[in-house]
Queue: 3 jobs
Job 1
Amino acid sequence: MKILVVEDDEANADMLACILCNQNYTVEVAKDGEVAWELIVVYDYDLLLIDITLPHLDGISLCRRIRTHSYQMPILLVTGRSSSHDQAIGLDAGADAYMVKPFDHEVLIAGIRALLRRRGTAFQSVLEWGSLRFDPATREVTYAEQPLSLSPKEFSILEFFLRNGRRVFTYSVILDQLWAYEETPGEDAVRTHIKGLRQKFRRVGAPTDLIETVYGLGYRLKPLEAIADSISTDQLTSSQGTQPIQQQTLSALSKVWDRFKTRVNEQVIILEQASAALMQQMLSPDIQQQASQEAHTLSDSLATFGLPEGSRIAEKIEQLLHVNESLKSDQTLCLYELVTALRQEIDRASNDLTTERSEQEESVFANERPLLLIIDPDRQLAEQLVNEAVNWGFRSAIATTLSEAETKIEQDAPTVVLLDPDITHPTTDSLKLLAKLSHQTPAVPVLVLTSHDQLTDRLEVAQLGGHGFLHKPLPPAHVLKAIAQAAQRAEAAKQRVMVIDDDPQILATLKGFLEPWGLSVITLNDPQRFWETLESCSPDLLILDMKMSALSGVELCQIIRNDSHWGHLPIIFLTAHTDATIINQVFSVGADDFVSKPIMNPELVSRIINRLERIKLLQNAAETDHLTKLSNRRKSTQDLNKYLQLANQQNQLLCLAVLDLDNFKEINDHHGYNTGDMVMRQWGQLLRQTFRQNAVVARWESDEFVVALSSMIKADGIQRLTQLLATLHHRQFVAPDQTQFRITFSAGIAQYPDDGTDLHSLYQAASEALHQSKVAGCACIFSAGGSRASV
C-alpha cells in the first residue's frame, strides 16, 4: 500500500513516515501542495494524508483540485485546527476523514485502515489465499496456522498480491507501487524479495511458487485451483507447478486431434495398403518409400499426442520398411501384425482424445479469431462496427453498460477494446477501466471513440494509456483500420518462437501449446524456405525437429551457428530418441537445449519459458541504460526505425523530441556525482511514468534524452512536454548536505513527415529546435520551425 504524506513541517513529516513505514506502508513525502499535486498526477497512491496549512497550495485547495480531476483515493486531513467549521470545510472539499493534532498513533493507523477498507471488498481486514492467512492489523502472517516471519518489504509485496489476487504485475508496476520514488532499485530488487518469500514459504510447507512467475510478464498469486491440485513444491515439472500447463496442453491436444485425426487415419490406411501389397508380393519401391515416410511421421506425431506405444509401433514399422532388400516372410508377417496393432492404438486414441463438443470445426476455429469488445451506449453504431469487424477478421462483442463490459471481459479476455467514455456519467469510471486494461499485464489495447475532441480529452486518454483517440462520427471502416493497427502492434510486442517441422500435426500442436502463454508462434513445414522465413519474422527462439525429409534439424542448426547475425539465436531440439549418441550430436552442433517426445507433458513449455526469461534478462542488460532504466541509444534506434516504418506504412504521424537537462554539469560539480546519479535515476523514473504507452523513451548522451510519441501531432507532443516541465519545476532535490535545488530541461520537437522523413532528418530538426531553446534561456520547448512553448 502506497501513501503520500503532504506535510511542510519536516519533524512531523518524518514522524508520520516513521509510523506508517513501521506498519509496512510505502511512504512518500511532499512538503507543499503543488509538489504533492505533481506527484499525484504521475504516481498512483492508495491514500493521501494531507496537512491543511501548506505553502504554495493549501490542503483544502489541494483536496478540491484532486476531486475536481476525479481522483478517488481516500484523503485523510491532519491538522491542528479543531473547530467544527474547519472540519466541515475540509470534508466538503472532498476529504474522507479529519484528524486533529495531537493524535494517538494507534488511532491514526486504525483510521487509515478504515479508509482503505471503504474502497471495496479487496481491502477486507483479513486476507486469505488458500491456507495463507494475512492480517494487516496485527501484521501476522500464517500458512496452515504456522507463522511466517517477513521483512517489511516482503510483507508489503505479499499484501500487494493478496489485494490483487487475479492480476499479473510487471517488475515496473511492483517497483512503482511498493518503492518510494526516491528509492530507485532495479528489477533485481524485486527478484531478490520474491526469492526470499519463496524460501520462507518452503519452510512452512507452502508452495514455493505461491507467487508464481508468468513468462515475459512478471508475477502473480498462484490460482487457488492450481494450489488445490498441487502435490510437490520443489520442481517446475511437478503437478503443482504445471497443473495449469497440463490442462491447457490437454485442451490444445483435443483440438489438434479433431483437426488431424482424418489425416492420421489416411496415414494408417497407406500402411495397411503397403502391408497388404507385401503379403501379395506386389509392393513397389515407391509405395514402400511412401509408407516408410508415413511411418516416420506417425512416430513423431503419435508421441506428441501422448501415445508412446503407437509411436514405438510406428518406429518399428519404419525400420522394417526402410530396408533396401525385399522383406522375408517372417518380416512380412511381423509388419502385418504391427500395422494391425497400430490401427487398434489409433482407434483407442480417437476415443480418448476426441472432444465432446458438438459444434462444427469451423465454429471452434472462429473462436481463435481476435476478439473486439465494443463498449458504447449506442447499440446501433456498435452493430454497424460488428458487421464491419467481420471483414477485418475480428469476432465481436457489445456492451452498452460498464457492468456488462466488466462481465464480458471477465468471461473472455478481449484482444482490443473500443470504448466510448460517455457510457458512464461522469466518465470517471469508464476511464478507470481504460487505465486498468492499458496497464494490466498483458495489456489490452484500448481505443477511445468519443464525440468530445478537446485537447484536454486527448491528453487525458494518452496519460491513462489509451492506444488511440477517434472522434465521432467516423465511418466503420476507418474505425476498424485503427483497431486492426492497435491489435497488430500488441501482437508485435510478443516474443516470437519459430517452429520448423515437416509434420503439420506437430506444428499445429505446438502452436496450440505455446500461444496461450503469450507467445507468437511462427510455424514452417518446408525447411527449404527456412532462411527467408527467419529473416522476415526475426524470432527470439527456434524449435527444430531432429529428422526432416529435406533438411534435418542438425543441418539447420549448423547453418544458423555459422551465420554472424543469427549465430546466437537460442535453439531447442525436439527428438523422439534420447540415447547418448543423439544427445551428443544435438549439443555438438550448438543446440541450447532439447526436449524429448512426447511433448504433451509441460516440459517443453517450461523450458521455452525459462530460456526466454534468461534471454530477456540478458537483452534488458544490453539494451537498458543502467542508471535511468531507459532504453539506450542502440535499442531505441531500432525501436524508432520500427515506429517510423509503421508510420510510413499506415500513413500516421509521429513526434520526436530531444530533451537536455539544463546545467547538469553544475550539479555534478557542486554536489558530487552521487547526487548527479540520484537526479538521473529520478528523472528516468519520471520519464517512464509520463510516457507509458506508444512511446520510445531513451537516454542517448550523458544528459540528452529522446522521446518518440506515436500517432501524435506536434501540438499534443508539446502539451505533454509542457506538463512534464511544470512537474519538474515543482520537484525539489536534496543534496547530501541538505541543500535543496531544482532542475529544468530544454527540448526541441519535430514531426514526421513534415520535419523529416527518416530518423536522421527528424533528429536533426529536433536538435536544431533544442538549440533554439538553449539560446532562449533554457527551461522551454521549441518546435522545428521556430515556434516556442514555455512554462
Job 2
Amino acid sequence: MKQLTSAEVRQMYLDFFKSKGHSVEPSASLVPVDDPTLLWINSGVATLKKYFDGSIVPENPRITNAQKSIRTNDIENVGRTARHHTMFEMLGNFSIGDYFKKEAIHWAWEFLTSPEWIGFDPEKLYVTVYPKDTEAKRIWLEEVGLPADHVVEVEDNFWDIGAGPSGPDSEIFYDRGEEFNDLAADDPENYPGGENERYLEIWNLVFSEFNHKPDDTYEPLPHKNIDTGMGLERMVSIIQDAPTNFETDLFLPIIHAIEEISGAVKYGASPVTDVSFKVIADHIRALSFAIGDGALPSNEGRGYVLRRLLRRAVMHGQKLQIQDSFLYKLVPVVGKIMESYYPEVLEKQAFIEKVIRTEEERFHETINEGLAILDQVIVQVKADNNDTLNGKDIFKLYDTYGFPVELTEEVAEEAGLKVDHAGFEKEMDAQRERARAARSNELSMGEQSALLTDIKVDSQYVGYERLQAESELLVIVQEDAIVSEAAAGKAQLIFAQTPFYAEMGGQIADTGSILDEQGNLVATVENVKKAPNGQFLHHVEVETAIKEGTTYSLVVDVTRHSRIIKNHTATHMLHKALKEVLGSHANQAGSLVTPGHLRFDFTHFGQVTAEELQQMEQIVNEKIWEALPVVTVETDIDTAKSMGAMALFGEKYGHDVRVVNIADWSIELCGGNHVINTEDIGIFKIVSESGIGAGVRRIEAVTSKEAYELLRQEELRLREVAQIVKAPQLKETVSRVEQLQTQLREVQKENEALASKLANQQAGDIFKDVKEVNGLSYIAAQVNVKDMNQLRQLADQWKQKATSQVLVLATTANEKVNLLAAVSPEGLEKGLKAGDLIKAIAPKVGGGGGGRPDMAQAGGKNPEGIPTALAEVATWLASK
C-alpha cells in the first residue's frame, strides 16, 4: 500500500475528480451563511443543497469538494470509539443532472484501486447495494467485475431525509483483516455493512433519483443527481495502518503536544487517559475551525456547542494533570497540520487563541462555582436524609457547567453518597431527542422542480448603467406554467435585459413599472429574484394583458433606488469603520439594505460600548464629508484580492467580480449598486446595537432623509424634557436634570432613614409578641415596610435578639405580598426548615417560594390572604 499523508490523500481525491471534469468547490465556512435550517455545515452536500433542489443551476454540473463538517449528536462517544469525531472532513463528488450510476461506480473503483491513485488491493474491497437497485448491482458485478460474494444486499441502503431528493445508495467497505475481528465468525453483524470493526465503510455513493413527496410517495426526479461522501479520517487510518483515526497524522501531532503540556501522562499508558488525549485532540480541532469561521462560545445555539466542547476538553485536561489553561497552545499545532488546504487557522491564530484562552479562564472560575453548587446539593441531600444524588441534579451540573458525570460521582462518593445513573440517563435521552428533532430540520431540502431549471434563455442586467430600458419579454410564468400571454394577476417575467436589480447580497430588489409602447402601465414590478440559471425573474402584478415576444419599457422607481444605494454604500463604510474600531475579527455575518434603513450583522465577542459606536459613526460621517469618490470596476478575483478587496463572510465568488473602491479606504467585492460619491449619502446615524445570537451582534442605522428625521425627533424630545425640567435653554437641560437627580437622592436618603426608624420601632413591638405551639416558640406578624430587603433587615435583628425559634413576617407593596420565614439554630436542631414552612403558607397569599433551611422567602398576589397565612404558621408547627 502507498505511504500517503492526509494532505496527499485529500489533494489526490480532488485531482482525480478534476481530471474527470469536475469543478473543485472550496470548503465552505462551518457556519451556514444562507441556510437557517442548519446549526452547522454537517456534510459535503450541505453547502450544495441549492443545486440539488434546483433553486440554482451550477456553472458546471460536476462538482467535487473537501468539506470541513461538524456533528455533535454523538459527543459522548468521541474518544471512546475508533472513529467518532465532532469535526471531520468529507470528500465528495457530485453530479447535478449530469452523469449517474455508471460513472459514479466506475470512477470510485478507479480511484480506490488504480496504482496511479490510491492503489488498494481489489480483494480487500466489498460493496453493499439496495436490494431493489438491480442496476447498481449489475454494474458492480458485470462491468466492474466484483465477485458475487463481494456484493451484499442491505435493506437500509436507501438515502432519505423525509422530503425532497432521495434514492438508493451503494457503500464501499475495506476489509482490515482478521486482526480487527471483534465478533465471532457466526455473529449476524460480522459482514460488510454490519456493526463491526473489521469491515470499515469508506465511501457512500448516493443515487438521488426520486422526489419524496409530502404524501409519502416517490416520483422520479426531473434531473437525477449523484451525491457521494468519503470520510478523510477513515481513509487515512487505513492508508497509514492506524488502529484508530487518532493514530494518524491528522491527530498524533496534537496528542504529542498534549503530552508535552502534561509532562506527567503519556499516550498509550492507559485506556482511560487515552480517552482524554483523544477528546482533547478532537475538540480543539472543532474549536479552532469553528471560531476561525466566526462562531463564538455562548449559552445558546452553536455557541453553546463550542462552550460544551471546550469545557469537556478542559475537564479531560485535568485528568492528564493539566491544571492551567492549555487549549489555546494547541491552536498552532492544528493550524500546521491543516495548513496545506485550510490556511485560515494560522491566519486567524491570534484571534482563535484569544477566544479560547478567555473562555478557558472563565471556565476555571465556573468550575469553582459548580463545585460550590454541588456542595450545596450534597448538603441538601443529607439534610433530607437521602443517600443518593438525584439524576436531574447530575444532569444540570453536566449540561450547565460542563461537569463530566465521573467528576460528580467522585465528589459524591467522597461525601458518602450514591449516584442516580438511571435518572441522569433519562435526562440525557430527553436531550438527545431534542437534538434529533433539531437535526430533522437540519436535513431539510427543497423539492426539485424542472419548470424554472429548464429555462435557458439569456437575460442581462443593465442597471449599473441606466434605470430605464427597452427590452423584449422572453418568458412568462403564471400559475406554475410557462405561457405565451398573461392576463391580469400575479406572474413572473424574464426579459432580454433589465435595469431592475434582483434581491441578493443583502440589497433588496428594485421595484417599478412596465410600460407598453404608448407609455401605458401594463404591470407593476413588486420584487425581482434570480432564477436557477441566473436570469432576473420579475415578480409582477399584471394590469393588462402582457405577451411574450413584445418589447416593453422597464422603468425603475428612481427615488426608491436612490435611497437604497445610499444605504448600501453606507453599509460598506460602516463595515470598514467597525473593523478599525473593534478589530479585524469583526466579520460581516449578514446585512440588509432597504430604502428606509440598513442592518449590519457582525461577529464579535463582548459588548460594543457607546464610545465605540460613537467612534464608528464619527468615522463614517467624516468620510461622507470628505466627499470621497466611489469607483466600481470589473476584474478577475485574483486581481481584486491583490488590490486588497475584502471578501464578505462565507460568500462564494466566481472568476469575474466587481470591486467597490471608496478612495482606497474601503475596498470590497460586491455586485450591488452604490452612490458615485460619499457626499451623496448626506448623513449617517446609528439607531441601535444589540446581540442577536451566539457571538453575533447587529447595528441598525439610517442615512440621508431618515437620519435627518431621526435627529429632528430626538431634538423635539429633548425640547420636551427641557420644558419639563424648566431649563431656559436646551444646552442647560443636562445640568438641570443633574440638579433634580441630586435633590431626588437626598429625598430618598431621608425616606430610607425614616423607613429604617419605623422598622426598628416595629421590631421592638413584634419581637415581644412571642407565641408557642408544642414547645416551639414563634413570631408571626404583618409589618409596614416597603420591600423584601427590609424584611431581611428585621430578620437580622431577630437573629441577634434570639427571641424565638421561628420568625414569619409579611408585608405588602403595590398589591403584591412579600413573605419571609426564618428558623434559629435551635429550631434547625429540632428539624424545622424555613423552606418547608414558606412552601406551606405561601399558597394562602396566592404565591410560592423557597430557600435555605434557615431562611426562605416567597411572593404572592393576594394581600387579603396574609392573616390566613400567618395563622397557618401555628398549624404547621403543631404538625411538627
Job 3
Amino acid sequence: MAIRLSGMTSGLDTDSIVKAMVSSYTTRKEKYQKAQTKLEWTQDAWKSLNTKVYSLYSNISNLRFSTAYNLKKTSVSDTTKATVKAGSGAPSGTQSLKIKQMAKAGYMTGAEIKADSEKTTLAQLGYTGGDAKLEVKMGDETKSITLSASSTMNDVVKELRNAGLDANYDSSYKRFYISSKKTGVANDFTITGSNIDGASALYSLGIAYGGEKTTTGTYSSNPYDEYAALHGVSDDETRAKIEAAVTNYNNLTTDAAKMNAQSKNLMNAVNYGYSYVTLQGIYKNLDEKNAGYSDKLKLLEKLGSSRDGAVISKNGDSYDTYTKTTLTDTKGNTLYKYIDSDNNSHYIAAVADKDKDTTSYYDVTESTRTAYTDADGKELEAVPTVVDDTTLKVGDKTYKKDEADGKYYLQKEDGTADKTDSITVSQKTEYTIAADAVNKTGIESASVAYDTIIKSMDEKTKSSYDEALASVQAFENSKDEVLGSDDKYSVASLTKAIQNAYAGNGKEAVEQLLAGNGNETDGFVNKANALEEAAEANTKKAADSNIVKELASKQKDSSEYTQALNDLLDRVNTAYTLQNKALFNSQVKKVAGQDSEIELNGVKYTGDSNSYSINGLTIEALAETGDSAISIITSTDTQGVYDKVKDFLTEYNNIINEMTKLYNADSAGSYEPLTDDEKDQMSDKEIEKWETKIKDSLLRRDSTLGSVMTAMQTAMMSSVEIGGKKYSLSSFGISTLGFLNAAENEQNAYHIDGDEDDANTSGKTDKLMAAINDDPDTVMQFMQQLSTNLYSAIGDKMKSTDLSSAFTIYNDKQMKTEYTNYTKTIKEWEKKISDREDYYYNKFTQMESAMTKLNSTQSSISSYFS
C-alpha cells in the first residue's frame, strides 16, 4: 500500500473523511465477513456433532449381529490348576479338562568350577587354547560365540544373553545357570563347541553337556553325534551324504506341506459344504416367495461393496450390471459402464431431475475427435489449420512439432520455439445422448435392490444368510499357495465336488460327502485327519535331519549353496573329531524343554506354551491334574448382555440429548459476529459471552438436524416381530420419561426400569434383566433388529449426495462452496474499497496541490506589498 501524506496544506483529517466516504463499502464487506464467520462456526458445530453420530453409527454396526450379545462367562472347579475365559463362540455347559503335562523351558545347571568371581578369566580356570568357537542352537536358529583365554565369567554371561538365552553366573555356588526364554521343545537349546578349543572352553566353564554318563564311561547324548553321522571316509563321500540328506529333507517337507494344505482345504470344505447347503436352501425359499429373487441376489452378492456405485438392468431372464464411472457425457451427466460377454463396453448416462428427485437413464453414443489444447490445458475455440505433419497455423501464428514431447510450439521470428505457447493434439472421446434416445426402463439401484431382498427375510434367516454367505465366499475366493488347481483336494476341486453333489441329490449327498459313511478313510473329515497325521509324521522325520535345513533353503548350484555346503562340511568334520575328543562335565544337569499336554473332553492337545484357545475357550494351565479332571462350566453372561444394552442406550442418549439441546436452543436475535473494531470496545469475557450466545443458537430449528433426529427416534420407536409376537423397547422396561417428567432437553432419552444408576427409574421392576435371564434369545434378536433399524436410519442420512460427502449428516460440500464464495466476495469488496480510497485520496491530493500553488501565489503577491 502506498504511503499517503494528505491534509498538510488544508489541515483537513483526510483519512477520517475518506473512511467515512467509503463506509458504505466497508459495511458491505463486514456483512459478508460476519456471514462467513457464522458459517465457519456452523461448520465446526456440525463437524463436532457429525463425529459423535458417526461414532454411534460405527459402534452399533457390530450390534446388528448375534456375536455382539453372545457373551459367555465361565467358572473352573479348581482355580489352582487352570484359569479359563469364555469367548462368544464358547458352547454353554460343563466340560472336562485334564492337564497331563506342563510346558517347561530348557534349563541347565552347570558343574562347579573354580571361578571365585565374575571377573575370573578362562585362563585362570586352566584354559590354554586360542579362539574358542561355540554355537548356541535354539530351535531352528543357530548363533555363534567366540571366547578367548582372557574372557571373564561376565563376558561369557554377556555372550550367552546376546545369543538369546537367560544366563547368570553365581559366584557363591560357582556355577552357571542357563535357560531358554520360552517354554516348549521347539525353544530348547544346546551349546556346543565348533572347534576343539570351543569344546575345551565349555569343559572349563562347567557347561559341556553330553547327557548322563553311562557305565561304559561314554555319555548318553553326545551333541556332536548328529553331525558326525554324516561323515564319510573322504570329503567327497561326506558331501554326497550331506546332499542325500538335503534331498530327503526336501522330499519330506514338500510332502508335509502338500498334505497340510490338503488337510486344511478339506476341513475348510466341510464348513463350506454345510454353508453352501444352507445358502441354496435360502435361495430356494426366496424363489418360492418371489420368483427370480435368487438369481438377482447372486448377482448382487458378487458386486459386494461395489453395489453403492452400480445399477442393474433386466435383460431377459438375467441382469446386466452397470458400474459407476468417473466419465461424463457432453452435458456433464455421470456415465455407468457395462461390459458384455465379448468384452465390449456399453455406457448409459444418468440424468437427474432434482425437482422431482428422479433419475432417468439413456444409452449414449461414443465418438472420437481430434482436440487441440493450449498450454493452460484449455481447448482452442478455433480449429488450427494443418499445414503438414509437423506444422499448424492459427491465424498468422505458426506452430512447429517438437518430436521429443509431441507438442507444437510457437515459432518466433528468430526461428526458435516459444516454450510458453504450445498446442497439444490429442484424441478426445465423447459420449452423447442421441436426440431420439428413450429413457431405459427396468433399471434399479443395486444397493436398493439388495436391501429390498434382504429385508424380505426374517431375522433368523438373515443371520443364517450372512454367516453362510461369508463362509461360502471366503472358501471360493481363497487361493491355493501349495496345491495346483488340478489337485483333487484343491479349492477349485473341492468346490466343484460339493456343488456337483448338491446338484445330484441335494443336502443328503453333500452331508454324505463331508461326513462319510463310517469308514475310517471316507468323508472329508476323516481324510483331513489322516492327511494331518501323515504330515505330522513327515515333519518329525524332517526334524531328525534339521541340520541340513539351512542348506536346503539355498538354490542349488548357486554360490550361496556352495558356501553353505562347505561350511556344513567343515562342521561335520569338526563334529567327527569332537565326537571322541570332547570332554563333558559329569556334574552338569540339563532339563529338556517340554511341551504342554492337555485333554479337553477326552481330546488331546499339545503346545509349546501353557495357553490354549479352543472352541471359544482361552485356557491357561497352571498345574498338572494327573488322571483327575476339573470341570469348566460355561453359561450366558447375563450381566454382560445387560451392560451391552445399557452402554448402547447411554451413547444414544448422550447424542440425542445434545441434538435436542441444539435444536431447541434460544434464538440469538440480532447478535452477529463482532468486527475487530467492535472487539476493541469490549473485554475478553464480554466477547466470549457474545460469541457463545451466537454459537449456541446456530443449529436452532435446523431442518437437517430435525430430520436426523426424527429418523433416529423413529428407528428407536419401531417394533420388531419375533416368533409372531411384536416387541418394542417398552416390552423390556425401556422408555422415555416424557416431556413432563424429563429434564430440559432430555425428553427423547431412554431409561431402563430398575437401573440402579438411574435415579429416575431405579425403584421400578427390572424387566430387562428378567427377560435376559428368562429368554435371552428374544432380547438378543430384538436388539439386533433395533440396532439394524437405527444403523440403516443413520446410514441413509449419511449417504453421499451432490451437497454432502459420504458418512456426513450435513451438507458439508455446499457449506464449503459457500465459504469459498464468501472469501471471493470479501476480496472483491476489499478491492472496491481500495479502489474508492485511491480515487478519493487522489482527489484530495489534487486539492492539496492546488491549495499549495494558491498559497505560493498569494505569498508572492504579498511580497510586492511588503
